Structure formats: C-alpha cells, structure tokens
Amino acid sequence: MLREISIRNLAVVEDAVIRFDGGLNALTGSTGAGKSIILAAVDLLSGGRARRSLIRAGADAIVVEGVFAVPRGVPLRDRLGMEDDDETISLRREVTTAGRSRIWVNGILSTNAHAAGIVGSLLELHGQRRQQELLDPSTHIAYLDARSDYGDLLSQVRGLSAEFHEARSALRDLEREAEAHRSQEDFLRFQLTELDGLGIEEDTARSLEGRIAILANRHRYIEILGRAATLLEGEEGSIIGGLDALEDLLGELAALDARWTEGKEEVAAARIAMREIGRAVERAGGDAEEEPEDLEALQGRLASIQRVERKHGLDCAGLVAKRDELRRILSALDDGSMALEAAERRVGEAARRLEPRLDELSAARKRAAKELDREVTRGLVSLGMKGALFKTEISQLENSAFHGPPYDIHLSPDGRDRVEFLIRTNVGEDVHPLAEVASGGELSRVTLVLKSLQAETRAIPTLVFDEIDAGLGADLGGVVAGRMRELAGRYQIVVITHLPQVAALASRHVRIEKRVREGRTIAIASALEREERIGEIARMLGGPGELRERLAAEMLEETIRARSSAG
User: Fold this and answer.
1) What are the b/e assignments for 308-334, b being 16+ CB within 10 Å?
2) What pLDDT, in 10s, does the model give residues 535-551?
3) What is the side-by-side order of every strand in the sheet holding 432-433?
C-alpha cells in the first residue's frame, strides 16, 4: 500500500507531501492544475525515464520519495530481506540538471530495474496513454494471458520458440552463406588455382628479391666474399688470428691480475662469433661458385607474384591468408550439404517439440477467452452498458519471421495466436474491433473492467488510475463511483478524477491547485476536510452556488451513512 509520496521540484510542484488512506483516494482539481504530476512521480519511482525537462526552473534536482507498507506474507518481504518488525520500505529518486539519476531503496543505492520490480509488485499504474494502448490489437494478447492459468505452458512455449528461432536462424545463415559462395564457386576456384600456382609462403617475395639481387651482382658478390674470408682467416694478419693471439695474452695477464679475466672472456666470445661469420662466408662463397640460378626465371616468378599482389591489393603474407580462406570456403562448400542436413534436422526437432505446445496454448487461450468475455461483458453491463457484448477473437498469425521452408510455422515469442478484442455496444448490432467502435467513455469502461480483472490475477495491492472516467457523462458518475467503491473494498485505489460522485465516495480527498507565489506558478496538494470537500465537489458539479453546495453536502452525508451501515 502506498502510504506517502513527497515531491520536490517536479515541474510546477515545488514541495508537496501527499498521504494516502487504505481505501479510495481521490485527487481532484481544475484541468491543468498538475494532477498528473503525481503519476510522473510514481513513474520515476518505478525507474521510469528521467527527463531533465521535468526539473522545475531554477532548481538543481527533482527529488521524489515514496513510502510503501508491505504486509507480512508478501514474497517481496523475503526478496528485500525485511525483518518481522519492518512494516514499510522507502524508495527515493533524484534527477539532477547535470543529467545524473540515482535511486535508493531503504537508503541503499540501487538500480532502476530493482526499483521497478519493487514498485511493480506493489502498485499498478494506469494512465490515459495506457488506455489508448487498448486501441492497438497487438496489446490484447497480454491482457488475455494476464487473466489465465496457463502461465507454465506459456513459459514453455516461449522457451521452445526461442530454440526454434535459434535453430531456424542458424539454418538460414548456412543457406545464405552456401548460396552466396555457390554462386561464385567457379570464380573462387579460379582464384585458388591462381594462388596455388604461385607456390608462395609468407616471405617468398622477399626471398626472391634477395636472390635476384645476388644474381644480378654475382661477380662483385663473389669478390666481396673472398676479401671477407681473407680478412677473417688469412695466413697473415687475419682478424681471427689476431683474436687468438690477444686471447692468449689476456690469459697471461689474468693469471697475474684477475681483473683481466672478463676481458679475456669477451675476446673469446668475439673470436667464436668471427669464426661463425667465417664459416657463413665460406658457405656463401661455395654456393656462389656453383651453377647460378636462372635470373630471368626468378625475375619472372617475382613479377607474377607482384602482379597478383597488385590485383588483390595484398602483400605476399596477405595472399597466403587469402589462399587459406579460399581453401576453407571451398571445403565448406564440399561439406556444406552435410552441415545443411544437420541444421535442417535441428530445426525439425525443434518444430516437433514446439508444435504440440502451440496447439495446447491456443486451446487454453480459447478457453480463457470465453471466461474473459463473460467477465468483461458482466462488468460492462454493471457500468451502464446494458446492450454490451465483449468478445475475444483468436486467430493464427499470417506473417512471421520464422516463415519459410522447410517449416512454415508462424509464431511470435508468445505463440502463433493473434488476439483481438471485439465489442458490441448496443443491442442488435454486430461485434466490431474495439478500436473501430468504442467511444471515449466506452473505452474507459472497458479499460476499468480489464484493469480490475488484471489486478485480481496479479494480486497488486494498489491501483492508480489517471482519469479513468475520461469521456464519461455525469449520468454514469454514480455507476463508476460504485465500481471504485467496490474495488476499494479489496485494494487501495488512487484515482485522478473529474467525477464528483467518485470524489464524494473517497475516504481521502486531495485537491491539486495552482497558485502564483512571488511571480512563480506552483502546484499545491491539500488534503480536504468536510467543508473544503463540499466546496470542491460543488465546483466539480458546475461551480459555486447554494444548490450545488447542498447537493455536495448530501453526497458526502450519503457516503458517511453508507460506511456506517456497512459497519
């Protein structure tokens, strides 16, 4: 139950605290007085979108806080870890001009999703925008499913539908990939043949360039190798011979003075390195003296590689990667039929598991629809629509993202049923889609009945209605008021209303009005006592006047007598 809500700097509300009773709470005021700001506050506590435009001009932040009573035995208490002596929880939301939004649950910083779960367990908010949603047939299935006993079956269908969708998507991906590759298979094979014919590895081009450079300068290359070999290991004055002698001398010094030991070791390492270089020079010289490679052949091969590099815009390493990718694609094409067959089997298995559950769900919905039709029709008649007939039409979806061979299963995540509400508003007429025939007042009454039934199913303790009486004439005020009084016997009701009959029945009556203070418009929320209520109800009846005030007083007295007689 919502006990209290405090609002600071939300649009025209500078600072307001509104307390609520457990029964029927009516919020009234002139059009544009700011009554719906209360709904904006509740929406913020529910984790709704935080718009900086809602911050009152000149203020730094919106601050909204709600206090809820949570009765013992409610599962939410265990989820929140409430102790036995804890009676209430509080939610606080702050939105700053800098765009920062934070929310606290019982003083502990929390998330919007967590707050939404808490408020959603305690309160059902119904504004005029949601009433308009009923004109969209795609929303009707949720109303039917909410008033049902097949929740477990619906969960199974959702899970199996997700499996089918995943398997079908995987099959389609394979089909698209295979089709795309198959259409250019000849071209891919031509490219692979070309790359295979080059016989390349990642460094082939670089290696060829080196070999060509050697062959083009072969005589100079051999001459330099010979001179290098002489310097390293010639008979007189060679580098290696000198290092041998130097190592011996440093060895004698180290025997006399240990400080020379490191120098001796460094010369020994240099001598070993020179000998390795000498052997490499000797091998290179031997190779160079052998029958030389065909320079023109090497240049031709390099030119072929460079031509293909330019063609593909890749270097040699890139061509090797492309060759390997082509091999993978063509191998997949060769093995593709097996992969496709396996994917089709997975889709078939998913479909065979899903279809019986879809049939069960459709049958369950049709049974639930009959009961819903009876309940809504009965509710509409009680609200003054004597010739009304409500009917739920269930058909199978005709279009689906899952459509296509080999399995033509048309479904949404909630099954393959299309649900639409139809209505007859007068005796002798045919039923027609709700969106085509319902007037504003009729739509309000349909909404009131459906939301009441939904609340019963979900066991929500608090219902908030924003002008549920929109479009209703004064002649139906008593009927709607009676329905509100009936609901208030089972739930806490908070209703923003223009009907004096509803306001007169409220156990708590709050008036929202605008005032100008220091050149600024502010909205004031005031809990009304008897005399103030008489004046406000008289205004709702048409304005000040002795006759209207007398009627307002009689309406309040009748409410008091009714409560007394009810015990």
Assistant:
1) bbeeeeeebeebbebbeebeebbeebe
2) 999 998 888 888 999 99
3) 389-396, 417-424, 432-433
